[in-house]
Each structure stands twice: as structure tokens, then as C-alpha cells.
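Inverse folding, one chain.
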């Protein structure tokens, strides 16, 4: 083999680790990359660490289990979501003694309207990434889903970007690490309550905020016991940083339903509104209906 060919092969070998991951015929192996401006997030009682571009908002879901004693029992359901660098990320964490048995409960997460994109291997765990292009009157975005099963959890992750192909997706995925006993938990930061900059009405905008995920409020046990029904209306701001702020109550209901509605509002994930090509804050009204069935 000639010297020139040896140099050529050596240059290819040097390029592979620089890319951070390698494309294989059947599986994409995603390694670790450094993400300037992003921060590591290790929530308490979880088995993952991930680098995120924005402050995650945490939400605890009620746990409901089937009466069938043979079904796997769900021990906890938590949700983490945020926005930054053009990326919306949502992580659902389901804790169980045998999390693999929970996978069959969520087939639509990977199948409904989604197309296969690639097989992944991230820090020793395999998954399949699927994608879908979503078009609405407010705009178009690309959504990707992945699923991972660890020793104690089933993790369902959603990543959404305006760009069809965004480096932020691989930046997010490449930073995931599993089962690190030496990781220190990250305190969940309280959400930002208010923004002080300019806030625009929808009619003043070039493009309104594009909502990707609108969480529903939980019906509290106290409200159910008192058979409370009705509508809660909130005024809020879809801030330019991708978070819901400046929440005020226009119409409320008792027995914890206002707090539940505010919790749901903070979990809304959206791409910020645009005015003259720049992200801006938008006023909005949020309505939540509570009914007994």
C-alpha cells in the first residue's frame, strides 16, 4: 500500500471522532459532544443526565393504575420540558419495577403519524428515532420521538424544531448519559414569573407563537369531591424565550383548580412569536374547562 493511500486512510480515521457520532448501515451511534451555552440537567430520582439549552420546567403527573393486578404498576410520572437554541424538548419519565412492561402502553407515541428516521445507540442503550412534519395555520415544524428503557424508568422524549434538519437535535441526544452514580442532582429551578420587555398583541405580529404541546390541567381530588365544574380563564404571555410568564387569573374555580390550570399553562411548549424577523413576546388568553363525567 502506497504512502499516499496510508495518509488518506489516517485522515478519515481522525475525522470520525470529531463528528461526535458515526453513521452505520443499521444504527447511528451517538457519542458525547460539548455544547457551549447549554447546561447539564440531572433531575432527582432519575437515571439520566442531559445537556439542555433552556431551564427545564418540571411537572408531576397523577398516577393511575389499572385494576388488573397482573398489569405493571406505575410508580411515578414526571415531565420535563423547555426551549432554547431553536429546540423544544419534552421528557416524560415513567417509573416502574419493570419499565419494559410499560412500553406496550404507549405504542402511539412511536407509531401514530410518524415515519422511521434512524436506529440509535446512546451511551449503551438502543432506540429508534421517528419523525413527523407538522403543519398548522401558525406554521410548520419537525417533531422527533425516541424511547429508552432503563433499569427503573421508561423515558419518552420529544424534540421539535422549525428547521427540518437541526444540529440541536443531535446536540441534545449526544449529551444523554445513563446510570451515573456520581452525578449530582440538579435542583429544579422555579419558573420565571414575569418578563419586563415589550409584549405584543397577536395583531401586531409578523408571525404568532407556534404551539407544539398544550398540556391539560389535572382535576384535583378535592374539586372532584365537591363536584366543581366550570371554566378557568388565564391571561398570560408567550415570552420570547419560549416560556409562559405573566400569568394572571381572569376567571377562577376553587379547590385547587386554579393552581392546576397555572401548572398546565407553564408546561405549554411553543416556538416564540416573530416581529420583523426577531422573536418577541405575545399576549394570549388560555381557557381550561373542567367537567365531571
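Residues assigned per position:
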Amino acid at each position: 500500500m502506497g504512502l499516499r493511500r496510508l495518509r488518506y486512510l489516517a485522515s478519515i480515521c481522525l475525522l470520525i471522532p470529531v463528528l461526535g457520532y458515526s453513521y452505520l448501515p443499521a444504527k447511528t451511534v451517538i457519542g458525547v459532544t460539548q455544547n457551549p451555552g447549554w447546561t447539564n440537567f440531572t433531575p432527582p430520582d432519575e437515571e439520566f443526565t442531559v445537556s439542555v439549552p433552556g431551564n427545564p420546567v418540571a411537572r408531576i403527573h397523577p398516577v393511575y393504575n389499572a385494576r388488573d393486578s397482573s398489569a405493571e404498576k406505575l410508580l411515578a410520572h414526571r415531565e420535563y420540558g423547555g426551549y432554547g437554541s431553536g429546540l423544544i424538548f419534552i421528557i416524560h419519565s415513567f417509573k416502574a419495577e419493570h419499565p419494559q412492561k410499560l412500553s406496550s402502553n404507549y405504542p402511539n407515541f412511536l407509531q401514530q403519524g410518524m415515519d422511521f428516521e434512524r436506529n440509535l445507540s446512546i451511551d449503551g442503550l438502543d432506540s429508534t428515532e421517528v419523525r413527523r412534519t407538522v403543519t398548522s395555520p401558525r406554521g410548520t415544524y419537525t417533531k422527533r420521538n425516541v424511547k429508552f428503557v432503563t433499569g427503573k424508568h421508561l423515558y419518552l422524549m420529544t424534540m421539535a424544531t422549525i428547521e427540518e434538519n437541526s444540529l440541536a437535535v443531535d446536540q441534545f441526544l449526544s449529551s444523554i448519559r445513563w446510570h451515573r452514580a456520581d452525578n449530582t442532582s440538579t435542583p429544579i429551578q422555579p419558573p420565571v414569573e414575569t418578563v419586563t420587555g415589550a409584549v405584543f398583541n397577536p395583531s401586531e405580529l409578523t408571525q404568532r407563537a407556534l404551539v407544539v404541546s398544550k398540556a391539560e390541567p389535572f382535576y384535583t381530588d378535592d374539586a372532584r369531591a365537591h363536584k366543581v365544574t366550570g371554566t378557568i380563564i388565564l391571561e398570560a404571555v408567550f415570552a420570547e424565550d419560549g416560556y409562559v410568564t405573566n400569568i394572571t387569573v381572569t376567571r377562577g374555580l376553587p379547590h385547587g383548580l386554579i393552581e392546576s390550570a397555572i401548572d398546565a399553562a407553564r408546561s405549554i411548549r411553543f416556538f416564540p412569536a416573530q416581529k420583523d424577523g426577531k422573536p418577541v413576546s405575545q399576549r394570549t388568553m388560555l381557557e381550561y374547562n373542567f367537567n365531571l363525567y
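The chain has two domains: 19-178, 199-290. The chain is about 15% helix and 40% strand.
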